[in-house]
Amino acid sequence: MQINFSKLSGAGNDFIIIDNRALAIHLTQPQINALCTRRTGVGADGLILVEPSLHCDFTMKYFNADGFPGSMCGNGGRCAVYFAFMQGVTSAEPEHFSFEANSNRYDAEVTNSETVRLHMLDARDFRYHMEIEGFACTFVNTGSPHVVIFADDINAINVAEKGVAIRRNTDFFPEGTNVNFVEITSPSSIALRTFERGVEEETLACGTGAVAAAIISRKLGKILPNSVKVTVKSGDMLEVSFSENMQNITLTGPAKIVYQGSVTIP
Question: Active site annotated at which positions (predicted)?
Answer without folding.
Answer: 73, 206
